[in-house]
Amino acid sequence: METKRSFGRILVVSTLVFCLEVALAAVIGVLYAMTRVPPHLNGVSVEVVPALVHLTWISALVGAALSLVVVLPAVALGDALGRLVGGAGSWAWVPASVGAVLAVPAAWALWSGSDRSGVTTAWAVATAVLSVAALLGRPRREGLLALVAKRGAAVVVGIALLGAFALWTDIVPRYRPPSITAAAVTGTWHDGRGGQMTFEEDGRVTASGISLFGPGDSADDVTRTCTGTGTWTFTPGLRNTWGQRVDSRIAGCSLPAWRVEGHDGSPELVRYVGDPGAADRYGLSRGR
Fold it and tell me: pLDDT under 70 in the chain at which residues?
């Protein structure tokens, strides 16, 4: 049943659609990250929930602002153009109107010297995202908000479940560290900054200029280094390759266990820097 057009309803529905689009982008981003090196979400899922809650609030505020300054003017402009050209307002004018409204800040960005390709890409993406929000918020019908919420949530959850199933069954291969042995660890590994570690077959290890980090540090905060000799051991993964560890014990150096990452034929020894769950990492490889 059609009702009188309410710009208040358009504002609410458009904001909801924007939040759903952000949620869908986040789901796709997480699924994509699980196929890359390294998938930063591995082992830090406890950090994801508060991050998504924070993202939801930000999305709602940004969506409401964009709906107010872009979507509502675009819908009004589309209606006016539709009546001017062919009688009743037409949905086809909405994307053109959104693009026209967004052309103003895009033109200002180009005039101020911003990169042309970056501005063009941002304008195209914003036009597509906000056009969907405007088109879904524009219909005159009762129960529109509930309908958009149910179907939009179903799409997001459905893609999340489908993606998880594809990763779980390896239809889409998810990232796994390469499987190595203690023999593969022996040799000299470099950090690309002048630091190196040499692992001997007899269990001895020699470090030179290996960076040391404390809580809250980043991989660029190097105030102390480790130089000396000690021993090392390799622990294979019990269930999968994520559990592989290389422990090194050198007097005077606090060295957490090295994780194994990289690819087959080019493994890396990595440890994560700073707070638990941080994606900042410091690594060693043979090719540096």
Answer: 1-5, 37-54, 86-90, 275-279, 287-288
Helix pair 72-86, 7-33: axis angle to 10 deg = 120
- Residue 48's pLDDT is 53
CA 10 to each of CA 60, 74, 145, 217, 273: distance values in angstroms, whole numbers, following the listed order: 14, 11, 9, 46, 46
Alpha-carbon distances of 29 from 44, 112, 231, 244, rounded to whole Å: 16, 31, 40, 26
Whether the bond between 38 and the residue before it is cis, its omega within 30 degrees of 0, is: yes
Quote the strand ranges of the chain, DSSP E.
187-190, 196-199, 204-212, 224-235, 245-250, 258-263, 266-272, 281-284
What pLDDT was estimated at residue 1? 47
**3 state DSSP class of 80:** helix
CA 197 – CA 191 distance, rounded (Å):
9
CA atoms within 13 A on the CB side of 163: 19
Please state the pTM of the whole predicted model: 0.72
